[in-house]
Design the sequence.
């Protein structure tokens, strides 16, 4: 399922409207690494980028989708995996849930430059609610395009309504706040869709120079201080916790489930985990143990019949006695692929008298 499809029709800078050009009249500072000369007549500098969201990758934010490198109707990310979808032209940096998004997470300029396009005013609402017809031509939602010189530009999509802090024509420095992560445009979850272009062509910041159909090639455009960004987990756990009842995917996505922690008088204790980047035949198991170490509940999911962008499982039990015994209830989730363990998470909840 396509989760986002950014447009490139944000409002244009007044100076660009006057000249009909967006590149030739701007000179901005750059952070560059290597000089690549395709010919004596043209020499372009390889741009480097800072991480465009004020979050800790793998902890407070996660990559849902990478750029699709497959030239046809299949999918291929920069590491020969399938953490993308057909035709995806950017990097989707998602937040764990809408509760985190509502607290405000900054989108920042990945490099110095000048704002060429910007749009604000679109509501933060899932495309599943409003329908694609309502956002046709505005798939990027609220966002901005920043030009960095020498043909390089970056685009920032799905930002929160009313959060943009820049306008066309503004100069920005690397790391400067542009706005907040939101849920506007063609998206079903809170994230930033980040696109890099050079001379109008899509560039994967994880694998610049890789040809269509290639993977495990090209070079990273992330700044040396962002080395951890290029770590590639084949699957990730983005939510794990406890509830006093059965949970749904919608409650996990909104963050409402975090306000339903179990207590000694709760009708049930339920552990849940949501993961992304799952593949066909992956095996998931979730076990819940009492303070004495006894198994309270467990669930072993059947092998997945197909790849899943996201998936959640839960395990729990209804209260049988007058109260749950006090102490720490511990859950352990294990994800296996081709028989090998690739992810594990243990977490606990304390039940007081």
Sequence:
């Amino acid at each position: 399922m396509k989760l986002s499809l950014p447009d490139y029709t944000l409002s244009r800078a007044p100076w660009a409207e006057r000249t009909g050009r967006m590149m030739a009249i701007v000179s901005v500072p750059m952070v560059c690494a290597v000089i690549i000369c395709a010919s004596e007549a043209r020499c372009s500098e390889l741009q480097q980028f800072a991480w465009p969201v004020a979050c800790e990758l793998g902890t407070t934010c996660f990559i849902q989708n990478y750029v699709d490198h497959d030239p046809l109707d299949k999918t291929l990310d920069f590491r020969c995996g399938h953490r993308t979808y057909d035709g995806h032209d950017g990097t989707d940096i998602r937040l764990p849930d809408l509760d985190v998004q509502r607290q405000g997470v900054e989108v920042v300029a990945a490099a110095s430059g000048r704002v060429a396009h910007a749009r604000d005013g679109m509501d933060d609402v899932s495309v599943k609610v409003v329908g694609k017809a309502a956002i046709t031509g505005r798939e990027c939602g609220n966002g901005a395009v920043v030009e960095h010189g020498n043909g390089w530009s970056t685009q920032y999509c799905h930002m929160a309504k009313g959060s943009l802090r820049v306008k066309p024509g503004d100069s920005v420095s690397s790391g400067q706040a542009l706005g907040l992560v939101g849920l506007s445009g063609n998206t079903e979850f809170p994230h930033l869709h980040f696109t890099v272009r050079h001379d109008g062509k899509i560039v994967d910041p994880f694998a610049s120079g890789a040809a269509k159909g290639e993977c495990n090639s090209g070079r990273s455009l992330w700044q040396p201080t962002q080395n951890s960004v290029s770590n590639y987990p084949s699957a990730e756990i983005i939510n794990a916790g406890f509830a006093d009842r059965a949970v749904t995917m919608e409650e996990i996505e909104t963050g409402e489930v975090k306000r339903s922690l179990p207590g000694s008088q709760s009708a049930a204790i339920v552990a849940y985990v949501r993961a992304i980047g799952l593949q066909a035949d992956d095996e998931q198991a979730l076990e819940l143990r009492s303070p004495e170490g006894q198994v309270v509940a467990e669930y072993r999911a059947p092998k997945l019949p197909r790849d899943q962008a996201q998936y959640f499982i839960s395990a729990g039990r209804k209260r049988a006695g007058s109260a749950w015994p006090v102490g720490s209830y511990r859950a352990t989730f294990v994800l296996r692929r081709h028989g090998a363990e690739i992810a594990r998470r243990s977490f606990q909840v304390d039940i007081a008298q």
